[in-house]
Amino acid sequence: MPHRQVMTVLSGLLLGMFVAILSSTVVSNALPQIVSDLGGGQSSYTWVVTASLLTLTASTPLWGKLSDLFSKKLLVQLSIVIFVLASAGAGLSQSTGTLIAWRAVQGIGVGGLVALAQVILAALVPPRERGRYGGYFGATFAVATVGGPLLGGVITDAPGLGWRWCFYVGVPFAVIALVVLQRTLTLPGGTVRRKGVRIDWLGSLLIAASVSLLLIWVTLAGDSYAWLSWQTAAMVGGSIALGGLFVAVEKRAAEPVIPLSLFRNRTITLTALASFFIGIAMFGATVFLSQYFQLARGQSPTMSGVMTIPMIGGLFLASTGSGLIITRTGRWKRWLVAGGTLVTAGLGLLGTMRHDTAYWQVGTYMAVLGLGIGMLMQNLVLATQNQVSGDRIGAASSVIAFSRSLGGAIGVSALGAVLAERIRHHMADGFAGAGGAPGGADSGTIPNLSTLPAPVRAVVESAYGHGIADIYLYAAPAALLVLALVVAVKEVPLRTR
Q: What is the model's pTM?
């Protein structure tokens, strides 16, 4: 297809991706106020994010496999419908439990959009030309990521609206995406690949149960029970057992949800592992930035979104620039190595910040991190898709999306638990130096800074600034592993068909 025709076909898909990403980022700066209004604590804050990541992760392999068997167009439209219904339910929530449940349903729809976007792109464009279009997906990601927090902050601060409209705002975009996809999305060779196939429901159930049990353990460990406890042994052991059953089922399945033969390919194994660890670094780094700016620096939700622009700008430039250059030169490994280096450096630098660190320094650190993520995210998918035939594109793409989402969910859960412990520690130290904690200074709930006396507020801001910096240091080794993995990947010339 000529470039213009491809862009026409991809317009609705890009809009769908925009809606999916917006659903997460539009609430990021409103989360402290949402959780506070609904009476939740730090664990609720983490679960509002983790719930959607969990279902996104668990559903991604199934969406990818279904795309190899049935109508990609129908599947992507179905995922948008699920997203719309869940968004409306989330906006009507009256408790954190209800909100978390609807966020879980929302994650199923987002999982379909994330998995199918890459699959449909691969069905339209050969690997050699795919870099530039992958860059457009990265640009869409960047615009939604920076626009979401800004829009969410404005909605939250605007009189007569409030945070519930953060969930409603994506619905019109989703409806437009449905209409555009119906009119423009036409895939070569028809929309249905095969008929009379058997879906691997047992394998899908086992992988979802294994991942969910592991994520629940990571989220609750250290808070509801000790890391070394019988609960840990039972949940980790159960997750491993379910994973073993999944492998056994996949070996015998006629249409496995994750074909194990994919991992005989060294490049796919390395890129899947790298995607897992970049998920830990990427999601762990971005989710807690809004807490840093609001609770450590006292900024409004709107300004919290504005202050993340350096990171998103770096991601935008690196994603689009690397994609265009890869299409021109055919060389892609150097971008993965550079991205791994920059992500490691960015996380290490963010680990040095405090609540009173000059903003130009924090902005520089975020820009370094954004450049690294932009070089890695789409190009890991490109390297994987270049290794498989057309009838396995869906399964291979979903493996990368699954690995990245699993890493992100584990990263958010684990780093959220670490953050809660570090904040308690730093608050205890701060109040000990001030002669003891006054009433209302409970480190287990999200504080409202405007209601705190000045001395108490200073301690709380310092604790959040120091505690959030600590989790970047915990995430940095994951980025270092990404660098080691991409260095080991062998560069294979991109196919032109």
A: 0.77
